Automatic annotation (TrEMBL):
Topology versus the membrane: Single-pass membrane protein; Single-pass type II membrane protein
GO CC aspect terms: endomembrane system; membrane
Record lineage: Eukaryota, Viridiplantae, Streptophyta, Embryophyta, Tracheophyta
Protein name in UniProt: Putative S-adenosyl-L-methionine-dependent methyltransferase
Pfam family, one: Methyltransf_29
Keyword Transmembrane helix found: no
UniProt xrefs under PANTHER family: F22F7.17 PROTEIN, S-ADENOSYL-L-METHIONINE-DEPENDENT METHYLTRANSFERASE SUPERFAMILY PROTEIN-RELATED
Major location category of this protein: membrane
Subcellular location: Endomembrane system; Membrane
UniProt-listed GO biological process terms: methylation
Coiled coil start-end: 51-89
Length: 453
């Protein structure tokens, strides 16, 4: 019993001494003249050091040490209370488990947390203010820290962008989702990634985007089959074996039928059924807000070449446009069903994309932007304003904005109409029709003006 207490006490003393030595070596307890002048007195030199992240990390380590100390004290008290009832010998397996799980693991995590703290040294201030990589003391997972650290170019040469370092970026909301992001980036380099695309999508939807790149291998379906030829893939359901179904309620494409009430998704009802998809935009509808694709393309004959379909779907709009020799990129999120996989297996281009993001296209490049089923009357007006201005940015002069069955409540219609009309686009089509007693559809085809300076 005494030997166990000595071992536990020695471990606590060892980690405490190690911690104190680290801070001592940084100058926190030796207030040398140079260090004091730069670290404590010169605000200009210290302005770029993230003191809050540093303080949070120290508090985190201290909390781990306090928790470990409380656990050790409680264990010793239990041993003292039950010393008469305990047998002299405990199994080596139990003893090993106790040391590994209850002692060594907490000590290891505390030690790693301390080792990862980057503390400025006196020489760091010799050439002006300290330049610290942003958030370097905020995250504990080493792979994130490596990712966000600036990477100096080899031989110190300036790269094609005109800088001598490369800076990787992450979304600012990643700071609010530290635990989720660290789980996402906690992997063994070069091994297979976890099947965690839904975690990545959760981070994206909540604003942690762009996500950091990862150095692990993405998983594919074990039974992946060769995709169908392009002349078949557009209008034929793909092979079930080409999708990883582990994170969906359904386990095959037939389960995604609109007849199944437990299919796992609600938007785009029936969009996994090719017989229903085939009639969209090519046959007359009873709803006046439905436009035929041929009528829209006739507005600018021969001018529609590339475009973006911004909505929820399985790529049918892009498939129909492909038949007209128009290349369309389809935005997609896997909202309860494999939308991205379905679009790709049809031989089309899915863009894994959220409303939070700036479009990854240069100014004045798209001939057409089509929106349906995603941008509706639930959206905040200010958010919608940012989105529409971004669409206007990438749409070329003379390009078309096709608003396809946008719906909202009647009382909000004037507000949303203003959002679309503020850009002073030329109206080629503009139709308002009833969706229900309280809601209406708005469909329009608008042309961007030249705006030449």
């Amino acid at each position: 019993m005494g030997l166990l207490q000595l071992i536990l006490g020695g471990l606590v003393i060892l980690v405490s001494v190690t911690s104190l030595f680290r801070f001592y070596s940084a100058g926190f307890f030796l207030h040398e003249e140079d260090f004091c002048r730069h670290f404590y007195g010169a605000k200009a030199g210290y302005a770029d050091f993230d003191m809050k992240a540093f303080s949070d990390r120290v508090e985190e380590v201290l909390a781990k040490m306090v928790s470990l100390q409380d656990k050790l004290e409680a264990t010793i008290q239990d041993l003292e209370k039950n010393k008469d009832a305990m047998t002299v010998n405990i199994s080596r397996r139990e003893y090993k488990r106790f040391l590994e799980e209850e002692i060594m693991q907490p000590l290891y995590t505390a030690r790693i947390s301390l080792q990862l703290i980057r503390i400025p040294k006196v020489e760091d201030f010799q050439y002006g203010s300290l330049k610290e990589d942003p958030l370097i003391n905020f995250f504990t997972v080493e792979e994130i820290r490596k990712y966000i650290s600036a990477k100096e170019n080899r031989l110190g040469k300036v790269n094609i962008y005109g800088v001598n370092k490369t800076y990787n970026t992450i979304g600012h909301a990643c700071v609010l989702m530290k635990k989720d992001l660290e789980e996402y980036m906690n992997y063994e380099i070069g091994s297979f990634c976890s099947d965690d695309w839904n975690l990545a999508q959760k981070l994206m939807i909540n604003g942690c985007d762009p996500l950091p790149r990862r150095r692990c291998l993405s998983r594919a379906s074990i039974l992946y089959q060769k995709p169908l030829p392009i002349n078949e893939s557009l209008w034929k359901s793909p092979d079930d074996r080409n999708v990883r179904w582990g994170n969906y309620l359904c386990r095959n494409f037939s389960c995604l039928s609109s007849k199944n009430p437990r299919r796992g998704y609600s938007k785009c009802t029936g969009c996994f059924e090719m017989e229903k998809e085939k009639v969209k935009w090519v046959t007359n509808s009873s709803i006046p807000a439905d436009f035929l694709m041929s009528d829209v393309l006739a507005i600018k004959p021969g001018e529609m070449r590339i475009g973006l379909d911004f909505g929820v779907g399985t790529g049918t709009f892009a498939a129909r446009m492909r038949e007209q020799n128009v290349t369309i990129i389809s935005t997609a999120l896997n909202l309860g069903a494999p939308f991205n996989e379905m679009i790709a297996l049809r031989g089309l281009v899915p863009l894994f994309f959220t409303l939070n993001q700036r479009l990854p296209f240069f100014d004045n490049t798209m001939d057409l932007i089509h929106t349906s089923g995603f941008l509706d009357g639930w959206i905040n007006l200010q958010l919608m304003d940012f989105i529409l201005f971004d669409w206007d940015r990438v749409l070329r002069p003379g390009g078309l904005l096709w608003i396809d069955r946008f719906f909202c409540s009647r009382k909000d219609l004037d507000d949303y109409m203003y959002m679309f009309l503020q850009f002073r686009y030329k109206k080629h089509k503009w139709v308002i029709s009833a969706k229900s007693k309280e809601e209406v559809y708005l469909s329009a085809v608008l042309e961007k003006p030249p705006r030449s300076l």
